[in-house]
Amino acid sequence: MIEVSTWGSVTAGIFLAALVVVAIYMLYIGLRARRGAAATAASNARLEALLAAAPALAMVVRTDGRVELPERLADWFGLSPAPRYLADLSAGDRGIDAADLAALNEDIAAAQKAGRPFSRAVRVQGSARALMIHGGRAPLALQAPGGVVLWVFDATESHSEIARLSAESAGAQAAFDALTGLIEAAPLPMWYRGADLRLAMVNSAYVEAVEGADAADVVRRGLELVEGSGMGGPLANAVAARDSETTQMQAMPATIRGARRMLRVHDVPLPTGGVAGFAVDIEDLEQARGGIKRFGDAQRAMLDRLSAGVVQFAADRTMVFCNQPFRRLFAMKAEWLSDRPEFDRVLERMREANRLPEVRDFPGWKAERREWFHAADPTLDGAIEENWHLPGGVHLRVVAQPLPDGGLLLIFEDRTEQVQLASARDTLLRVRTATFDNLYEALGVFAADGRLQIWNNKFRALWGFEEAFLATHPRVDALAEAAAGKLANPARAVLIGDLVRAATVERQQRGGRVAFADGRHFEFAAVPLPDGNGLFTMLDISDSRRIERALRDRNEALEAADRVKTAFVANMSYELRTPLTSISGFAEMLSAGYAGPLSADADGYVAAILESVERLGGLVDEVLDLTQEDGKAPRLDIREIDLVRVARLAAQAAQPAMKRKKLDFAVEIMPSTGMIRGDADRLRQVIEHLLKHAVAGTPEGGRILLHTDGNAASARIVVSDDGTGMDAAAVGRAFDRFAQPDVSRGGERALGLGLPLAKQFVEAHGGTIDLVSEPGEGTLITVEVPRR
């Protein structure tokens, strides 16, 4: 029993020990679970605090449309109590808008089916609250299979900020568009460069200036407005603007639309690191500046060439310019003037040079002249004029002109010579009046309006006008009417008015003649004068008229005597031909042996008779040719002729004379001589006369040349010899048919009819004849005859 109790005790002890162990373990497990629950509760409390402070609230939407959301979110939706189903989020005028709810249902359905997340902005009715909902499939831990978790953000402030920023953005965009439009419409090239200084934007004026297709093309190609666009060229201005962060300006040349222009380029740095630029065309401004400078230089050069002295003072009364005549007039040296002396010092220097009027109160006089700087009268031109009488008889005209900038311009004109000329003019006028009154001619000066201004005593006495009448300066029409009674034909009085009007209005010189009733004759003349007036003169030509009539009667008598002489010579020539024909016939019969054989001496005598008869017959023919037309052009038988043949026939006719004097006769008939229209006989006689003249003037053994040629317009005949030649007097009268006969160069007596006849025949053909000769050098005669 004792053993059983002992075993039982042991067993009970073991059981109790095990129970204690289990209890301790269970206590440990309970304490650990308690600690875990406490940690979980603390974590849940922390999460709940985070959720309460989070800007977003969660809402679970199950597949059957039931929703789980906190009361705070229900307040955001403006609903109380919290809705149980999704459809309850819109309840009349509370909750979200029905359209927004319908769109939200579609987004939730898509998230449930495809697991696609979404975002949706909704508005709460009756409130300014704006909510942003982000949705997605619910995780498994939420134990909402097929459900969707919606995170709702209060975006009211964000939407207000977005609206504000959108308004600012719209305003900025409008300003940008306006600025872009302004830049695009600007007439000057404008551009923008990025931080790398490459072109990023250009306007239409830039595109047009560089002749690009459009702005994109210009930017893509990097077309620069100014040539030489390297880092050392125009881009250096942009680099300097970017680096120094200050606006840079530089004048650069450029070629725009094919014209060379000068541009002022402005580069403006921007906060973005880029550089904006624009170019102003200053070509016209530069040309205007250059023109103004050249005008100033030309004006000063012109002022130096004036006879008047010119000096200019600035607003501070210092001298800025004076010309050379001013320096000479007032004896001022360039070294002293280079210091730009003041007005008062200049006046004092003039006084030292004795070039100012003598005045008692010089300081007061100088102060009055100092007021010239402010003496401009707005109602006048502002100029002040004075006359200075200097010692030594010098007269100066002084003009003071105040300038708009407060300066003063002074002009000093030396009028000493004008004063002297005025005095001399008065003397001259008195001399002229005395001269006019004592002239033999009658003179009257009429003004441009036809009124008589000046007359002499001869004019008044000739017409018998009263001095009182002339003192009224009558018009020429009234004067002509009063003078008509003095003329043999009163109607001729209108000639006076016509002549005066021609001289004063038409500025032409005209004249005429009239006869007075008393038998005198006067020659009128009207001459335009430089001052616009007209001078009318009358000259008594009664004596010259009588002499002229006598000379005319004598001339008529001489012409009648010449006609009688010409007729006598013609008749005598005809009368001479009859005995010449008989002498020639009988001499030819004797030479032919009709009277029997003749001795050698008799044959010589008969030959001499025939030669003399031939020469005398030729002279008679020449005389008849010169006299039968009474000085008129001879009648010609015009037809197409071969001048080569005519020249050869003339040369053959001259051969016997050439042989008798043993002359070297050269004939050059060129093929270009050709055909012409003319009288073959007359042209042959021309050549024969020229050859005869050459034979007569050439001694034995001499040389004579006959040359002919031509061109398309005319034919030429040249006869030259190496004879004794002719002096100037003989050449002058070689073609005069009435000249006295000369002793020829060969010692023979010649009537000199050949050359006058040749000239007459040549001119009848419309040609010309020219003679050139020098004593001892021979003679050259050239004839040109037109082909038509």
From TrEMBL:
Pfam families, sorted: HATPase_c (PF02518), HisKA (PF00512), PAS_7 (PF12860)
Domain of life, per lineage: Bacteria
Transmembrane segments: 6-28
Histidine kinase domain mapped to chain residues: 571-788
Keywords: Kinase, Membrane, Phosphoprotein, Transferase, Transmembrane, Transmembrane helix
Database matches in Gene3D superfamilies: 1.10.287.130, Histidine kinase-like ATPase, C-terminal domain, PAS domain
Enzyme class: transferase
Recorded catalytic activity of this chain's protein: ATP + protein L-histidine = ADP + protein N-phospho-L-histidine
Matches recorded under InterPro entries: HATPase_C_sf, HATPase_dom, His_kinase_dom, HisK_dim/P_dom, HisK_dim/P_sf, PAS-like_dom_sf, Sig_transdc_His_kin-like_C
EC number(s) per entry: 2.7.13.3
Protein name: histidine kinase
Species name: Sphingomonas hylomeconis
